[in-house]
Structure to design on (273 residues):
């Protein structure tokens, strides 16, 4: 049995995994604002202690930042100010005496997504559409980290006076004074103005996907994160934009693009590290 953990800015999701299925799940509040490093680690260990069982043989943890995957050291975690340098692997292995792996949350998402695909592809790209835009690559069921666990983060590339993330995440909506879920509800109800917003979002996203195709030539791209719930709202505009931006349209016929908004996917992926 494996334990997968997905650490976010507001919640910590934990799950016991057996045969690629989550058999028990727990959600806890993330770290208090202003908490010191030791306080956060004590809190994390307390949550793990509530769910771990003697049958658990490995622990996997996904975090929203860059990681030294070999040493399990977390650097400058988003929304966790005290996590500048955190030897998380050593701390959890010392506390629970289980082999522990640590990686970026987008990498965990793509691992989980690749494991859930009905028709597996040798190259899968996972794109998390949340507060930011995270990108992970799985090749033959294994994460491609790069040297600094930063492979795939093309959303940080310059784009329209900012970076792609500004137009392909929650930031796109908040910059317009909009809440993604509220505007999504309006769009699903057929509101023309709301539909237009998601059409623009899809246009930007399609251009980002073209870059991913040029860089990694995946057989499948999977969206996760909160905004992926609205996939049907931006899918058509995304494909149109992608076809315009990608120079080899015949290869798009083989490309699968889907959404997996299920919060279980990053937990599963973390357990598979």
């Amino acid at each position: 049995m494996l334990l997968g953990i997905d650490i976010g800015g507001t919640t910590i999701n934990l799950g016991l995994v057996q045969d690629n299925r989550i058999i028990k799940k727990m959600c806890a509040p993330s770290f208090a604002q202003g908490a010191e490093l030791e306080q956060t680690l004590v809190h994390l260990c307390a949550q793990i202690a509530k769910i771990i069982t003697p049958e658990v043989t490995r622990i996997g943890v996904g975090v929203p930042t860059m990681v030294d995957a070999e040493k399990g050291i977390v650097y400058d975690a988003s929304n966790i100010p005290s996590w500048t340098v955190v030897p998380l692997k050593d701390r959890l292995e010392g506390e629970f005496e289980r082999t522990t792996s640590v990686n970026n949350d987008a990498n965990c998402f793509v691992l989980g997504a690749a494991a859930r695909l009905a028709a597996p592809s040798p190259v899968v790209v996972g794109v998390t559409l949340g507060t930011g835009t995270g990108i992970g690559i799985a090749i033959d069921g294994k994460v491609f980290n790069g040297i600094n666990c930063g492979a795939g983060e093309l959303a940080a590339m310059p784009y329209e006076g900012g970076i792609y993330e500004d137009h392909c995440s929650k930031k796109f909506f908040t910059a317009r004074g909009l809440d993604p879920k509220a505007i999504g509800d309006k769009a699903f109800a057929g509101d023309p103005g709301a539909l237009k917003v998601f059409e623009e979002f899809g246009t930007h996203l399609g251009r980002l996907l073209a870059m991913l195709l040029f860089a990694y030539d995946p057989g499948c791209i999977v969206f996760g994160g909160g905004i992926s719930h609205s996939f049907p709202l931006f899918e058509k505009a995304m494909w149109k934009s992608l076809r315009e931006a990608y120079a080899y349209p015949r290869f798009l016929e083989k490309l699968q693009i889907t959404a997996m908004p299920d919060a279980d996917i990053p937990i599963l992926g973390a357990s598979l590290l």
Q: What stands out?
A: DSSP finds eight helices and 15 strands in the chain. The mean pLDDT is 95. The helical segments are 37-51, 88-96, 105-116, 170-174, 180-188, 192-216, 231-245, 264-271.
